[in-house]
Write a structure and sequence with these properties.
Blueprint lengths: L6 H17 L2 H7 L8 H11 L17 H14 L5 H15 L2 H13 L4 E4 L5 H4 L20 E5 L17 E11 L6 E8 L6 E8 L5 E5 L9 E13 L7 H37 L1 E2 L2 E2 L4 H26 L4 H22 L11 H15 L2 H12 L41
Parallel strand pairs: 1-4
Antiparallel strand pairs: 2-3, 3-7, 4-5, 5-7, 6-7, 8-9
Helix pairs in contact: 1-4, 4-8, 4-9, 5-6, 5-8, 8-9, 8-10, 9-10, 10-11, 10-12
Length: about 425
């Protein structure tokens, strides 16, 4: 793997940092999250026009930039530094890969170009606090029970017979689909022009999870913005009251596999974003301790403060290395995300403490990073479950007998039954002589 950045990647990072430095300071962030959209629409359009940010990982044939997901992760490191409130994560990291993987050619041609240019935003809606499970970040559910499982709750889908008045959004073949139920904690769900709704269908006999496309103006759709800890990640509650929907792709597609693949890429993007936030929180803290004086000297000159900052620096740099590796190998995204979220949580907490009394005030900028750390771990973690799932996927704690190849016979470790099992036994222990 060549970890060096290309000239194009360095240029994207430099330009993005310059734009966000001018337009996305702490005061601008606080003002943007209190708008109806939850983000600065003008800044979003500027990023889309100048950098093609929402379409950075979309193929050129669909109007995108045609870069790899690694480029999106590197760009998100810069958005994480500024805590940019935008629909970038929900649109580019969650919905675009699913449409590209599962959508028909007609759906890709109709949806990907406006998503790539920023004219359309999208949100992934799953039932309840099941986003990490749906993306296979903290575990794998081959049955898709998180989508409703045929029981009360979640989102249910039923097919409508042809000619039964499916209405707008129905499939061209047959009568289309209707959705009913609700989903909470939908990232940017209150403002997205397109919803990708994960719904359960088939009852007990043919239980399965499918993805459906729902437009913002669909009849029966009710959206309400929720009060959340981190306002830079606005969330919504989606209520579906017999809403007409269009199936994404075709029946029989591997929806759970596509969600898991999207989860691995999204984990790498989130890890890079968290590293950017942690690095900026550390930089702001270092700048503060250089200026704040106590007993006639800067508190940054105290040895105890130096040690704490050095520990934070090592943790952030280790998380950055893991995030960069995951950007090139998304299979490592879960472990990188765990390390990055932990680094952000620890760094944000230390930033509040090292800022002293002013840092503990709720209005201080350090709390923006602390809220982002806590909210991201609630949405995509917790850290210990991310690590446990990564260990399970790697087989770190698997029974050796369970993973032995079929053509490798078991060896009896009893020396009496199989002397070859212990070809060089240790000599008997010598008795200790006390003089």
């Amino acid at each position: 793997m060549d970890a060096a950045f290309t000239a194009e990647q360095d240029e994207i990072r430099r330009t993005l940092r310059e734009i966000l430095g001018k337009r996305c300071g702490p005061d601008e962030v606080k003002a943007a999250v209190r708008t109806a959209a939850g983000h600065d629409r003008e800044l979003w359009q500027q990023l889309a026009r100048q950098l093609g940010l929402p379409g950075i990982a979309v193929a050129e044939e669909y109007g995108g930039v045609g870069c790899a997901p690694a480029d999106l992760a590197l760009a998100c490191e810069e958005t994480g530094r500024a805590l940019l409130p935008s629909p970038l994560l929900a649109t580019a990291a969650l919905c675009v890969p699913l449409i590209a993987a599962l959508g028909t050619e007609a759906q890709r041609s109709a949806l990907l170009p406006p998503l790539a240019t920023g004219g359309l935003t999208a949100a992934l809606a799953v039932s309840g606090p099941a986003l990490a499970t749906a993306l296979a970040l903290t575990g794998e559910d081959a049955s898709g029970q998180w989508s409703g499982g045929g029981r009360a709750g979640g989102v249910q889908a039923r097919a409508v017979a042809a000619g039964a008045g499916a209405g707008a959004g129905a499939d061209t073949a047959g009568g289309g689909w209707r959705l009913y139920g609700e989903a909470a904690q939908v990232l940017d769900g209150h403002s997205a022009g397109l919803l990708l709704v994960a719904a359960h269908t088939g009852g007990f006999a043919r239980s399965r999870t499918l993805l459906f496309l729902v437009r913002e103006d669909a009849p029966g759709l009710v959206r309400s913005r929720q009060t959340v800890l981190d306002e830079t990640r606005p969330q919504a509650r989606i209520e579906l009251r017999d809403v007409p929907a269009q199936l994404l792709g075709v029946e029989g597609a591997d929806v759970l596999g596509a969600l898991a693949a999207t989860g691995r890429t999204a984990a790498a993007v989130l890890a890079a974003e968290a590293v950017g936030a942690a690095g900026q929180a550390l930089a702001r803290t270092v700048e503060y301790v250089r200026q704040r004086e106590q007993f006639g000297r800067a508190i940054g000159s105290f040895q105890a403060v130096k040690h704490r900052l050095a520990d934070l620096y090592v943790q952030v740099q280790a998380a950055r290395s893991a995030a960069y590796y995951a950007a090139w190998d998304p299979d490592q995204g879960g472990l990188a995300l765990a390390q990055a979220l932990e680094a952000l949580r620890v760094t944000a907490g230390e930033a509040i403490q090292l800022h002293g009394g002013i840092g503990f005030t709720w209005e201080h900028d350090a709390h923006l990073y602390f809220k982002r750390a806590a909210a991201d771990e609630l949405l995509f973690g917790p850290v210990h479950r991310l690590r446990a799932h990564a260990a399970d996927r790697a087989g770190l704690f698997a029974d050796p007998a369970a993973v032995r190849p079929p053509d490798h016979p078991a060896v009896d470790t009893d020396p009496a039954a199989n002397p070859a099992a212990d070809p060089a036994p240790y000599p008997p222990a010598q008795e200790k002589v006390v003089v």
